[in-house]
Amino acid sequence: MKRPQRGSDFDELRGYFDSDEPIMTHGANVKKPKLCWINRRDFETPEWIRDHEKVMMFLTARFPRMLMDKRQRVQATRWLIIMIRYFLAGDPCSEIRKELRISTAAVKNIVRHIRCAFAGARLDGQPRTGRPVGRPKEMPKAA
After folding, report:
1. Which residue of 27, 77, 86, 99 is surrounded by the most CB atoms within 10 Å?
2. Position 85 pLDDT exceeds 60
3. Helix (H) / strand (E) containing 47
4. Considering the domain boundaries, does residue 58 fall inside one?
């Protein structure tokens, strides 16, 4: 550890502090101020999120039974809150997390799901295969 320079300031501090005080041995621990997190994102908010009718059509297509099924209604509400707070208001995921009482990773996943759903892609990020969903139908046998 470097010994501080002797001078009038140091001698004056010695009049107030002992040699074993933390300020005399480690300094004042003055650190450079951190830059505030500026809410910059590398994407632009899609225009459809600003249109109430398109948002409701989007949520109805994604959650078709939201009026009858409580689970879908809760998920649709989460998606709507995240669309408003993240895309329109520009709030960070950590702030949205507190309101919804879910993890930051869950908020980020829902944002990714919203983007994928609007783009028409699968929500797990995999490309669409074009194959029909479900068990294969039995083909008629040729005689």
Report:
1. 86
2. yes
3. none
4. yes
